[in-house]
TrEMBL record:
Residues 13-335 form the BPP domain. It comes from Pseudotamlana carrageenivorans. InterPro entries: 6-blade_b-propeller_TolB-like, B-propeller_Phytase. It comes from the Bacteria. This is 3-phytase. The lineage of its organism: Bacteria, Pseudomonadati, Bacteroidota, Flavobacteriia, Flavobacteriales. GO terms for molecular function: inositol hexakisphosphate 3-phosphatase activity. SUPFAM superfamilies: Thermostable phytase (3-phytase) (SSF50956).
């Protein structure tokens, strides 16, 4: 009986998946060893066609994989030997000792209860083995980091990491850390605890609109929550929206920012589709089938990445230990 019920669920999921025309990917990456989860796109400032897509492999024997734009693994940029790396993000212009600037990649290492930080593209660790997060958490699994997003303030030029976790309180679920360096090294200082939680499942996907100073995160079975990313603007929730457009879990969030228009692209995980929202009004626009199954994380850039992706790149995790690359024009966001 249980088997028949499970088969029925799969058939229902498949029918939902096939109601929309499938938009085929341009590239499917090589496989990770265990469990692909969340990507981040690094744009090579000297040659965008040599940009790198990083992706987590969420396992006790985990890794941050580096892929070229053909989807091939770049072994000397891949970080192995990690303990369940979950989500990953990156930012540009991090100051080291007020003299040198570097791009940085940050990710959570859940089983070590750490946030990790590396310099890009050299893949040099900056964190002395990792920064502990969610110290003194009271809830079971409340100190296990999952989601992470980096925010570069347009006000102060400071860079922050906003981190989510497996479980937490109904208020103050997210922790925000200022990342900075001095003569001793690089540090992560807790600057605030914020963000509501419905208590229904967990909070994993986080994305920041740097231009407007807004953070979005997925309260997975409830809504997309919206807050100011700037600590000085307070902790009041701006809105909680979109929940009615998802079959069950609200997962990965990517922000496509054009000059005069922006979009939220959010994984409708159990429907195997993506929901598109207007970045300014947060109104629902449309749903897309990009061919992925059970997508967790996604990322996007509107920057042209050479001849392979002349209109920008959308990357999404697929539940076959890999990631799909779509030229951004295929999503028809501006039509």
């Amino acid at each position: 009986m249980k088997k028949l019920f499970f088969v029925g669920l799969l058939a229902l999921a498949s029918s939902c998946h096939n109601n929309l025309p499938k938009i085929a990917p341009d590239v499917i990456t090589e496989h990770t060893l265990h469990d692909s989860d969340d990507p981040a796109i690094w744009i090579n400032p000297n040659d965008p066609s040599k940009s790198i897509v990083f992706g987590t492999d969420k396992n006790t024997d985990g890794a941050i994989y580096a892929f070229d734009l053909e989807g091939k693994i770049i072994e000397d940029k891949t970080i192995r030997g990690l303990k369940r790396p979950n989500n990953v993000d990156l930012e540009y212009g991090f100051k080291i000792n007020d003299s040198t600037e570097t791009a940085i990649i940050a990710f959570t290492e859940r089983e070590r209860k750490k946030m990790r930080l590396y310099a890009l593209p050299e893949m040099i660790p900056l964190d002395g083995g990792g920064f502990s997060v969610f110290k003194n958490a009271q809830e079971p699994e409340g100190d296990l980091p999952m989601g992470i997003a980096l925010y570069k303030s347009q006000v102060s030029n400071k860079i922050y990491a906003i981190v989510g976790r497996k479980n937490g309180p109904l208020e103050g679920y997210l922790h925000q850390y200022e990342l900075y360096s001095d003569s001793i090294g690089v540090h992560a200082k807790l600057v605030r605890k914020f963000g509501k939680f419905s208590g229904k499942k967990e909070i994993e996907a986080i994305a920041v609109d740097n231009k407007n100073g807004i953070v979005y995160y997925a309260d997975e079975m409830h809504c997309i929550r919206k807050y100011y990313a700037e600590p000085s603007k307070g902790d009041e929730e701006i809105s909680c929206f979109g929940g009615d457009h998802f079959k069950k879990d609200i997962e990965g969030i990517a922000i496509a920012q054009y000059e005069n228009k922006g979009f939220l692209i959010v994984s409708n995980q159990q429907a195997h589709t993506f929901n598109i929202f207007d970045l300014e009004t947060n109104a629902f626009i449309k749903e897309l089938n990009l061919g992925t199954v059970e997508t967790d994380g996604c990322d996007v850039t509107t920057v042209a990445l050479g001849g392979k992706f002349p209109n920008g790149l959308f990357v999404s995790m697929n539940d076959d230990r890999n990631f799909f690359f779509h030229d951004l024009a295929k999503l028809k966001l501006l039509e």
